[in-house]
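Below is one protein, fold included:
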Amino acid sequence: MSHKSGFVNIIGNPNVGKSTITNLMVERKLSIISPKSQTTRHRILAITNGDNFQIIFSDTPGVLKPLHKLHKSMMDSVKITFQDADIVMYVVEYKDYDLKDPKLERKISSTKVPLFLIINKIDSIDQQKLENEVKYWKKKLPNAEIWPISATENFNVDELKNRLIEILPNGPKYFPEDQISDKSERFFVNEIIREKILLYFSKEIPYSVEVTTDSFKQDQSILKISSVIMVERESQKGIIIGHKGNALKKVGTKARIDLEKFFEKKVFLDLKVKLNKNWRTNDLELKKFGYNQN
């Protein structure tokens, strides 16, 4: 039996459920999820293996119009996905008819690799609306395979994965079988903490925050992690910490629970909050946080 291997690159506007789909495909939570836009900031490779296949799902930030250097870096990571794509998945929801970057939309419509148009969240619309959506996309992207799914209900997702495996190109594995991503353990620590901030804080706070991990030490019984939450303004620091430190404690407790599930080990998490003014517009700081600056 020949082996199949390839990159499936996932693109779409914010809040269409790309990360939920990725996690379902690899049967593990690698991409963080929240109701807020701009949850995904980095391109994350999520790797899954079978007896005769390896799929590398490329989960990218939601497409947006850049307002500052952080946004530009996020969009650069979306654009480069076409360089290695064996399959492109364009994820939309009901009446999500225009990608926020027209040039990127033209790239999708003219791609030479297999194109899948995924209509997500179909559990929230009726049959007539779904039929209208399918009709619209058949006309707009005649070369695309159209797949209605519900990621939250896990409807038609396994069937979609089987179809992707079916059309993967033949080839050897790109990554060892025990590797689940291209990202480091510290990256996932940072993302899990940032997810809790996205879930528990509103307005500008989640978008002004970046997380770094200064120390990651493990032995047989416990994983000791020391991380720092960076904010842009002094007032934001007070909000993150909260009255008598209660807000920070809540973030730390919820993050620790998820970290223990992720690493399958008891975790001690030490969290601090520091001021880092204008990090979203500072080239040096963005590079330090792992954002590509072209």
The two ends are 42 Å apart (CA to CA). Residues 185-288 form a domain with the GMP Synthetase; Chain A, domain 3 fold (CATH 3.30.300.20).
